Amino acid sequence: MGGIIGVTGTPGTGKKSIAPLLAAKMGLKCIGLDEIARANGLLTETKEEGAVDTKKLKIILRSFEGPGVLYGHLLPYALGAGSASKVVVLRCEPSALKERLAHRGYPAGKIVENVEAELIGLISSDSFDAFGPKKTFEVDTTSSAPAEAAASAFEVIEGKRQLGTRVDWTPDYDTGAKLRSLLSADES
Questions:
Q1: Strand intervals (E) in 79-168
Q2: Domains of the chain (ranges plus CATH)?
Q3: Is the pLDDT reported for residue 136 higher than 50?
Q4: Is the pLDDT reported for residue 20 higher than 70?
């Protein structure tokens, strides 16, 4: 398959682990948006986080020639809608994501921000809006190994498996107590 395959998702969903496996399975090069941003001086890092100028990154990505796998949480904001042939959105159950991010040493505020984004499906929704429902699909990485998630994505990209229904975590967090527990910074 030609063109660009995008892999995106909330931080902690497995992009850095899964994208290279998917690229290898497809025989494609694999490049992270952070690498491109860093190489072009678009990443400004502060003590707690980095910020990328997505407008400038979008301009740089216009010259990216596929086929290849591009990955990063900024994909729906930096890649032109017609540039991707397929986009894989990695999803992770919010409480499991919270544990992953805490294990990585994320600051409490960033954990809450990212868990909330995953709960409401922010990157997923923005990806479906940017690339369309015929090109975009989700893979739940909560309890699957990276190789298993890459294999699932590969099967959908190759048309060997149908797109699944969209992930919705909100029914699992249907009370104030559950939401407070999930979004509490001190219970990471």
A1: 84-91, 136-140
A2: 4-93+124-167 (3.40.50.300)
A3: yes
A4: yes
